[in-house]
Amino acid sequence: MPNGEGAKAEVLQGTLDLMVLQTLDTLGAQHGYAIAARLEQVSSGAIQLNMGTLYPGLMRLEQRGLVKGAWGTTDANRKARFYVLTAAGRRELAKEREAWDRMAGIMNALLRGA
Amino acid sequence: MRTLREWLDRLLGTLRTRRADADLEAELQSHLAFAAAAAAAAGAGSGKPQAAAVTQAMDAVRDRRGLPWLHALSADVVFGWRQLVSRPVVSVAAILSLGLAIGATSAVFRLVDAVLLRPLPVAAPDRLAFAVTWYLDAQQRLDYYDSWDYPTYRRYVALVGDRSDLLLVGSSSLAEVTPRGALQPERVNKQYYSGNVFGVFGLQPAVGRLFGPTDDLTPGGHPVVVLAFDYWQRRFGGDPQVVGTPLRFGGQILEVIGVAPEGFTGTEPGRAADLFVPALMNVEPLDKPGWGWFRLWIRPRDGVTVTSVEQLLQADQLREQREALALLPPDAPPQRIAAIKSRRVELQPAGAGASAPQKDFRRPLVVLASLVGVMLLIACVNVANLQNAQALARRREMALRVSIGAGRWRLVRLMLVESALLAMCAAAVGTAFAWWAAPFVVSQLSTADDPIRLALGLDWRSLAFGLGLIAGVTALFGTLPALRASAVTPIDALKSGGRVTGHRRLTHGLIGAQTAFCVFVVFIAVLLVATFARLATYPLGFRPERVLVVEADAPPSPEGPGRWAAAVEAVRAMPGVESVALAGWPLLRGNRWRADVRAEGQPPQPDPAYFLRVSPQFFATMQLPLLAGRDIRAGETAAEIDAQTRPRDGVAVVNESFAKAYFDGRSPVGERVSVEVRPRIRATVEIVGLVGDAVYATLRDPIRPTLYVPARQTGTAALLVRTAGDPEAFAPTLRRALGQARPDAHIRLIATQTELINRQLLRERLLAKLSGFVAVVALLLSAIGLYGVLHHAVILQQRPIGIRMALGASAGHVVRTVTGSLLAAVAVGSGIGLGGGVLFGRILEDLLFRVSTTDLTSLVAPLVVLAVAAVVAALPPALRAVRIDPARTLRAE
Fold first, then answer.
1. Which residue of B has its CA nearest to A72?
2. Where would you tag: which of A39, B128, B187, B367 has the fewest CB atoms within 10 A of its CB?
3. pTM of the predicted protein model
4. How far does A48 lie from chain B, in Å, by closest CA?
5. Which domain CATH number covers A99?
6. Which residues from chain A sit within 8 angstroms of residue B17, using beta carbons?
């Protein structure tokens, strides 16, 4: 796990929200552990969220009405709380994604650029 | 913006998803289960201590779930409340003193708001103005009158044209009305309005219709009346069938056409109107120049400024001045010329209405508000001292909090929450007090024929004021002690018996400020009470006891001589009557009649002389001593102009001031003087008698040369009756007898002469009472404050005092140590307070009578009072200090 600790420290609040929203958008309804596992997998282990970061984040999103949580059962018939995107959440994701793309474009141009 | 949004989201989220702890924990446990399963699948052991991870995450989620500061705040409130309850005596004392002050402040605010500030419920009140004329009064002081006559109104309407609406807004007057089916007439407040008033005010009727320009075209031709909403509710139970009902006013019958909207009580704060009548129904004064009976209101059309209308009216005023100056005799005294030239028209804002109570009570209310505000400051200082002492006593608690990691802001908040709780309790007490006090003050200002009616409703304005007051008061008395208490360092406070630095400076400052406020209030109160005392004991020159006054109108018909005389004879024959006389109006009624008088071979007097019409027996009835010559005889007449506008000579009795001014103190009996009966027309008056000086229109007017001339037998007159017994008990009998003797007469007022005098003292009595009350409370609070601080100082310094005494310090030395520097603060505060009082006294000058702010007595009295209070307050703590037993104190630590 190269640079694992460093990467973890850099999970900013705004990007965590964006990552969680994007994950839910891609995979549909997911429970907390699955979201964390997915992020770890996608980042090749660079991002490992502990419970103290993940669940307050989910709660914040739920309070803002961007996701909705409900108890359900997994394929393996285990109880878990599943989160889905709300309509507001989808709108927010589109907006954040666009903002991110723009920002990344600017940074790219700046760092590599002419 | 973003933070606000998030905060709102969180607040909403808190309310929307209140997930239970158990639910959260279940979710976290399920997470761990997934993690364990995944780890097992990967073949690795569990890496973390799981229970700790759950607890940690739970804390993070819980913080996220609610608003942490809200929880902390509610904890502070509970803690603060426990603190207050744990020292009930101190808390109750603080709440009561603060409550009294808050209550008095809110009561005065309600009065000030109702009389001076609250905008009328009409369209665009800020565009309304009313016209006043400034002039120099007999004492050479600038004053204004705001009453206008109808011919001037007509002229102004033509002059202003379509630049502005000119509204005739009748001065509210008492009228006796008999609704259909009622046996007794009842008194109501009536206002005459020109036809455009309701339209310009943008008012819609509650029932029926309001009168408009077409209802105000022919004099006497529109017998209609609009009821005020309150009167409609009170008298007719809100019955919509009231439209069409006839109301009888003496001989006039008016038909109700509608009801004004709720909340509109006329244009005069303090004189809520009951009825509105078209202006042209007031037929009698329509063609009489100089008969003022209404205010002139103005609302400029769009694009026209108030100033431009004012200039138009002022130009007309200047033209009138030139005419008046041309009519003056060539040797007219310069004061009269100056008085004419001083006249100036001004348009004043009318958005909050215009009324006599407004004019009369503006300054007293400002004075009252200042005194009450200062009293509130004193109460705040007191509570600040209490809180400060508490903070000191709680230093260890605070130090402990700091040492386990509480930030400074946290401590300040803790103390401020406690202070706010105190302020809210005090506000509750104060609201109850104000609820009672404001109407009480209003009732003190009312008289039977001049009731003050104010809308004192509790609305958002008083609510906002109350909340602002709580916040302000909390900031005032809570901030300093909170900052001081929070400035502890753990080491300092945990050391036992550590010295307290900075505390004394704050306390001394507070005591000094409190003394300054207190001396200020006492000083002003002394001035106002002395004014009342001087006016109340002012020599009148006549004896008002047992004199009953009846004011009556009779229709102005040529009934021939002897009509009033016959009524006088009828009353004289009644048992219980000692003597009866007539006068143009009673003494001390506020009316004045002045004219220029010349004595042959003497230079013209600077001021005109006063005139009063009286009948034979007037001097005997009023017990005004006749010094020389004789009384007026039946059949004698005053110098005036007859029906053919020819001057007619007459007789007069004059007072001592007249003899002094016109005849160098010689007896003027038998002399002749000339009187200007119309501009440039003079008649001769023969002086037949000399009487002592007596007050005339008001108590405050200096006594002036006065001529008593024979009364007329028709028109308005005052009947003066000296009774053998209680004059008030005699009033109903007299009313009946007069009704039989002159059935055409309409009685306007029956009152005792003493009542008329008291009425002149209404304002002064009220100010004296209230300022006296405020001063006593201020003294009490200051004394309590001083006592508390000294008492506390002695307890704090027990050890050093004990050591000094053990080393042989004398009792006097100990007392000086304890009280010395505090008394110095008191002395400095007194000086500042006195200085402030003298400055403020300038504003007060008009309200004072024969009292000066620089009198030695007015300066010394408050200091003596304060010194006594200070000594009384300082005595018990000083004694306590002296009685400290060194051995016990030193052993105690």
1. B27
2. B187
3. 0.76
4. 12
5. 1.10.10.10
6. 59, 62-63
